[in-house]
Design a protein that fits this description.
The chain is an alpha/beta fold. Helices cover 49% and strands 15% of the residues. Helix 2 crosses helix 11, helix 3 packs parallel to helix 4 and helix 5 packs across helix 6.
């Protein structure tokens, strides 16, 4: 087993017998995304795509969660301090690039990708899980879009991936209402491929990943391209549109109210502006 230097403690990576395991590593924040994590994830996926030693990629989270999505506390701090110093167009361009380098890469790279969920996948964390080819969940894990609760339109391809997996009506329900979807319900809906007891997650993940790593890499490359093309539509168009809408919604009063409410542990009061 070889541990890889990701450049940040927010992301861990190790390669073992063809399986690259990438771990989102901010357990104190339920593995909420940081800029360092996102940039490092993009770099690791780019390197993995070109490395013949990598035959399968596993994405998971440290501790009890998979990924809580964006760092709402960090968003609230930026809002309180006047926001980012770069222009709106620069924000959109940066988000588009990062989304393509992370969720887009998981979906489009010519190698099998597997998300292992020890706990909750929310918001952009759910999007990352859905970007992978396959998902395995601990029985105690759950999914939620969560975006409506914090006044954001959604990002990292979640609208595209969710619609493809469960259909438009169910995707709209999940986006608008942000209800929790249990592991068993996720399996029924086709959002999860396997559900196991929490203490069996690591072993089941290793079993599936090793089977993928031992499989026909060239065949998988063509197979994945065929399957992606069969879905119809263009993921990059969806990713770009989401980036634009997500950045715009991040500037709304509703989002700022929701981020503040999150920190203050109260229900947000949305004003529709």
């Amino acid at each position: 087993m070889a541990k890889l230097d990701t450049g940040t403690e927010d992301l861990l990576a190790e390669l073992d017998e063809g399986v690259l395991t990438i771990t989102l590593n901010r357990p104190q924040a339920r593995n909420a995304m940081s800029d360092a994590m996102n940039q490092a994830l993009g770099r690791q996926l780019a390197a993995a795509e070109l490395d013949p030693a990598v035959r399968c990629i596993v994405l998971t989270g440290a501790g009890q969660g998979f990924c809580a999505g964006g760092d709402v506390k960090g968003m609230n701090e930026r809002n309180a301090s006047g926001g980012r110093t770069i222009t709106l167009d620069e924000q959109i361009a940066a988000q588009r690039l990062n989304q393509r380098n992370t969720a887009g890469k998981l979906f489009k790279m010519a190698k099998p990708t597997l998300a292992a969920l020890p706990g909750a996948a929310a918001g952009a964390g759910l999007s990352l899980a859905l970007a992978c080819d396959l998902r395995i969940m601990a029985k105690t894990a759950f999914l939620t879009t969560a975006f409506a609760r914090v006044g954001l339109a959604g990002d990292y391809g979640g609208a595209y991936f969710l619609t493809q997996l469960v259909g438009s009506a169910k995707a709209r329900e999940m986006y608008f209402l942000s209800d929790r979807v249990s592991a068993d319900e996720a399996l029924r809906l086709g959002l999860a491929n396997w559900v196991v007891e929490a203490d069996e997650l690591a072993a089941k993940t290793r079993e599936i990943a090793q089977r993928l790593a031992a499989g026909p890499a060239v065949c998988f490359r063509y197979m994945k391209e065929n399957l992606n093309r069969a879905m119809g539509g263009e993921v990059d168009d969806c990713l770009d549109l989401e980036a634009t809408h997500h950045i715009h919604s991040a500037g709304t009063a509703d989002h700022k109210e929701a981020a503040a409410a999150f920190v203050e542990k109260r229900a947000p009061v949305f004003q529709g502006r």
